[in-house]
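Re: the request from the purification team.
They wanted to know what the chain is likely to look like in 3D before they choose a buffer screen. I agreed to run a prediction and write the result into the notebook, where they can find it.
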Amino acid sequence: MLQLQAVILLIKKMARLPPLNTLRVFYIASQTKSFTKAAGKLHVTQGAVSRQIKALEDSLGFPLFVRQHHELVLTQSGEHLAQMVSQAFKILEDGLSQMRPSLTRQKLLVNVPTTFASRWLAPRLRLFQEQYPHLDLSITTDLVSSHIQAQRYDCCLIFSNSPWPYGESELLHLERHAVVASPNLWTEKNHLQINDFTLLHLLNNDGSLLPIWRQWFANSQNSQNFNQAGITFSTLDQAINAAVAGAGIALVDRIMIENELLNKQLVQVDIREMRGPYGYWLISPEKKKTENQYSQNAAMQLRDWLILSLKD
């Protein structure tokens, strides 16, 4: 049996340790021998698992799996790594089980943008609870605009086009905008151009118009056709509901309208999509002096889940 020293030796030989998420995904995939089954265990998509494995292979510099007769088989290097990772996770699990009080529940205060809470987080809470039954989330949607405000929360996400100016932050998801409309609105007038319809706009926190539509027209080389007139909303959820009702055409991050696209309540009316410039940033507030080790570990579990789930 490989001992901890063997794992430490492997780490010392690496230029840097691969991201823990990629090792965890590899650990599950090596057990199931299937990206699809691994995705089911991790509650992510099969594509997310495939990308994590590819990132790990790129980091290590050698392949971990080969496909033989419609099934995944570990390479010799993959087998060796799987043994070491399995041993390392076993040591971690045993150590944490000794440190963690039995049946200890942790309450975490989480602050996220309003539409993110209702359209992305809420539909995934059941999966989160299945994976982390000991964590009780308290979710708020308050506006966070200062370092002091961020300190109130165990985990905080902000919607922005740049890094958090008051401390450490990590971009979890860059918006992938699609132009969408109600199928009734689009099929009735599909001989018209997008700029002939009412555009649904979003307001920034300071009351200014988010420049998403302006940038989309600029990127599509139709900037001269951009008409700022339209309907403005304070939240993305309002704009999406208005689009479903046929009030106009919206430019929306695809992860926020998964159900509407699936159920044909909205249709994508232009194949072009636009990345950014806005996205969701994870704020890492300084540890509270009164925060104990168990609550810190619980907060890290939530952050790891968000990172893995949003990087699909």
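For the purification team: Residues 233 and 239 are 6 Å apart (CA to CA).
Please add any questions underneath this entry.
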